[in-house]
């Protein structure tokens, strides 16, 4: 027979465990919708060098896109907000096929996971593996999804933590293009 003290301890432990489980589920499936525009020491600086081989074997150098907009997105195949965000990245790429490119970099993921993610969700833009996590460190990425907008000329102009939309990114693009025209 279990005494009252043991019963109370088990009940409290089960309650704490349930609360922690709910917290973990909320973090894993959070609807961040409007990604949070974030501060970054990179804003106003040249984009870190992102060069290497794409998943399809072609070579890639971010400097080849210095004349347009570059949206660098750190994602993971196991990240629910990343999955929700993916159609927005595809929409932004569609809108900017003439003057911009999305670059996806898996964060804490495998090449197999990244390939399966893109096979399932589509997306014809460059995907580069960050084998040594050098780009994640250079960009200061904490957890996916995180995105950085690089303007023409290669300057980082914005950072978002969490799920973003094509419209959010376009608001920044439009504001910056308007400022250039107004000068």
Describe, in plain words, how this protein is organized in 3D.
There is one protein chain. 42% of the residues lie in helices and 18% in strands. The protein has 183 residues and is an alpha+beta fold. It folds into 2 domains: 1-30; 36-182, Glutaredoxin (3-Layer(aba) Sandwich). Helix 2 (80-95) crosses helix 5. It is globular.
Please name the defining characteristics of this protein.
183 residues, alpha+beta, 2 domains, five-stranded mixed beta sheet, two-stranded antiparallel ribbon, 5 helices
Strand pairing plus helix content: what structural class?
A: alpha+beta
The percentage of residues in β strands lies in 15-25%
Shape: globular
Number of helices: 5
Largest sheet: 5 strands, mixed
How many structural domains are formed by the residues? 2
> What order do the helices and strands follow?
HEEEEHEHHEEH
What is the terminal separation in angstroms?
A: 81 Å
Q: Whole-number radius of gyration?
A: 20 Å
The poorly predicted ranges are 11-34
Task: Supply the CATH superfamily name of the largest domain.
Answer: Glutaredoxin
CATH topology term of the largest domain: Glutaredoxin
CATH architecture of the largest domain: 3-Layer(aba) Sandwich
Question: Short summary of the structure?
Answer:
The protein contains 5 helices and 7 strands; from the N terminus they run H-E-E-E-E-H-E-H-H-E-E-H. The chain is of the alpha+beta class and 183 residues long.
